[in-house]
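Aim 2, interim progress. The first record below pairs a target sequence with its structure tokens.
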Amino acid sequence: MKSASSTLIVFELLPPYGKEVVTGMAVPDGFYLRFRFKKKWFVTDDPLKILNTEALIALRITRTAEIIPIRFCQIIDIKDVGNIFYILVQVGAFVELHSGDEGQKEQLILFNRDLTDTLFSGIDNTPGRGMGKLIFNAPSYRNHFGNPSYIGTIENKSVAAWGSLVGILIKQEELQGLDFICIIEFEGAGSKKNQPIQNGAFFLAPEQHYVLRVMQRRSRIEPVSEITLKLDTAVLTPILDKQLAVGAYDILEFSFRTCKSQIASQKTAMILTVSNTGAAQMYAPIILPAVIPRRSRLIQWIFILLFLTSAITLIMPSIVAGIFHEPPEIISEQVRNLLILVAIVTSQEVGALASLILNKTFSLGGLKQ
């Protein structure tokens, strides 16, 4: 994500805004999130200028006025509707903090001190109440963070960064008992550990079995949480769509199967919901858009050609025989049975028109007998 300028987007830890950060921490890199702010929260007089800038999403602990950096993103669209601006972002990497408590503490102190001396200069930032502004023109903060002591694999680096951030957030009294979740693997077609993401949605293959693995973490062992993967059953067939999170942390697995490919692309969504008796007011559904691509045009036309050839031969054998200058009796019973089988198999791919022709075929066949 490269851009000439950067933006800082701050969310207050106040209902209902706190749940925005929970959602922002759950979705994988490349997904889209939409935020909304009134014009009064922008430092700039022209909010539309933040379009195409890199941004840092941060959470302000209203009680203490501490700013916790969360995740980088790219602002890909912004629209003004009256006095409200809708910001569409594509999320990227989590902010990577030091693994050790002292290292994290030092990073956050330096980050907050820099904000106080620069962006927040002249802005009301009194602990215990909302800050005067929430969206700032800012320098890039990518070089402010890092974890030199990380020794894990590249594949797990993002999950480790997520875990460090959650470790800080669950200590906040406002977030006690709240389940944070993160998609760590999405295994499916071709045994890939993570499925491709295009235009902010998972790109899934038809007629495939998929396994979605989610990491869950909270500050308390109790209460038990129920995490559900809600699916559009016309497109996605659930296999395992509900799990109980028992304890402060776990890895939960969900599974489903995709439908057959269709003439048009199938757009749908998977929705992760969390429910328990604690901090329920902070939860928001986590929506994961998905697309099953349309069937290949070439394959579609092959099926249509096979079906029409079989159907015409069955319905009007004399015409087909005439084309080849052969008597109609050349179409033997064995050939006719084979053509019926081809017509039935390909009809499932051709659609409703095929059913009508098949009915006509069998009704004519019945009259001849």
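The second target in this work package is listed in the same format:
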Amino acid sequence: MLDAVKRGFKLNCSPKEEVIEAAKKFIETEIDKEAYHLAILSGSHAFGLEHALSDIDVYFVAKDITNILAIESVNGYTVQSNCVSLEEFFEIETLANPHKFPMHDWRSIKASDSFLKKSIRLTGGYLLDGKSEIIARWNDFDWNHLSRYVLSRGGVLLSRQLEDAAGCLQYGDYGMAWLAVREAVEIAADMILAADRDLYVGRKCLSRRLRRNSKLYLVYAQVLDALDAPEKLKYLEGISYQSNQDFSLKGEIIRHAALASYLGGIALLRGWDVPVGDVPVFKWSSCGWRRNPFFTIQRYGNAIGVAGYDKGYRMGKKLLEEWLELNSDLTKDELMASHPKIPFEYLVKLNLLIDEEFNG
């Protein structure tokens, strides 16, 4: 079994020996050794996310995937094969190998969830068997590089989701705005995990991934709060909805949008080159001058900036770090005194700073 540290996967969640034994027995008894180039133990058992009824997933790289389709009960576990064609392996290699995939490549926003899932599971899994040539290529897959890819892609998805939320808020559709912000918070939570080099595809696993990370425990509580639909949304079922409640819900939508853009920004600014450190507790004020919560930071290998409302601006990292922290109820004079290098009028002109009259 390949060492977890060498793979770059930093969480202490090595598979149980009995799981490894069941996977190896499955290969020996069910799969022709000449039918595959690589066998990797992956899925929930490899990433510390299994539950009582989880299957054991073995990923095979094969020229002809029809020869390795199998599912069997082994030592009390259900073990199943997952197939990756040799062509797919080479495509994944272009994402996980930094020598083959420069981070300014725009493919980073186009990969499907299913392809990303295979990329993460293959790169972060545990070696069971394989041919030396393919093992050597797999050894060059870089977990940190793949993490940056996930972060870059997440920033684009987050921007799209918050743009929809802002449009719905301006239109007066609070129900759709709330659901858009909810999804944005999930994307941002996945980004902050990727910033700590915890990668996985599957929103159902967000809770455990956040809970098990001591650095992100306070973030976990805030994410849970944002994902809990408020009683006010009952109006979607036809319950009467008063204007004062509309205003209150609007404030919650804006606050949770700010949480999502904050977590995404922290991930891209502090978790790009090295794993993110402790994440400060998010604080937000509903009055005074503060950053526009519907703009998000985006980053590629050769560029960093901010985007929102179908607009994007390249900016320096230091300015973005200061802008991301503008979450409190400051007057113009207070803001300029505490952040003297902030180009106030310029940011207002770009709609990156807002005041108490903000409506989305």
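The beta strands are 38-42, 56-62, 71-74, 77-85, 126-130, 290-291, 296-300, 303-308, 311-314, 353-354. This observation will shape the mutagenesis plan for the next reporting period.
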